[in-house]
What does this fold into?
Amino acid sequence: GENVEQHPSTLSVQEGDSAVIKCTYSDSASNYFPWYKQELGKRPQLIIDIRSNVGEKKDQRIAVTLNKTAKHFSLHITETQPEDSAVYFCAASNQGNTPLVFGKGTRLSVIA
Amino acid sequence: GAVVSQHPSRVICKSGTSVKIECRSLDFQATTMFWYRQFPKKSLMLMATSNEGSKATYEQGVEKDKFLINHASLTLSTLTVTSAHPEDSSFYICSARSPGGEAFFGQGTRLTVV
It folds into this structure.
């Protein structure tokens, strides 16, 4: 089955700097790669996703890149703000009705 | 508004009792729903896949007789934690994938067994 590795587990950045979180996956059949932000006690919130037919996607300060050959994808947050502080999870799955497999999470702290 | 609704959001129960958690898909029919468990400061771990009209599929190490799943309609899946013990205390979250592939999550249920 799919295995998703995520690094780093914790990340501290100064406000205004960029943050990068990286994930690798094992199943070459996976083709959907979402990123979630989770605040304490809340459900995961989708912040961006990418499918295997594109290599990069951007939404304002957030971007995701995908390298299918190397089986890794990354989340980039630019101009970080204190409200970006949260736990971020990457995930991978096939299309259709298959479950997401999550990475272990990255606790991001943005220091004002 | 919420696409997937989960209830209750919090429950405290005594050891040995059972707790039922409901997960409803509000905007689309979900033949499949997923149940995850999340311990403090950990990731979401898949417990089981709930299949409408058939038996659930459980992940390795998850006791099917302890975590009963029923998916009687295209919009409702229930998870019943039977004979709950303190080690079952956790955050339980359900999920369903839309026809477009995006995964939507319920609000989660914080279960505390005392």
Observations:
- The longest strand of chain A covers residues 19-25.
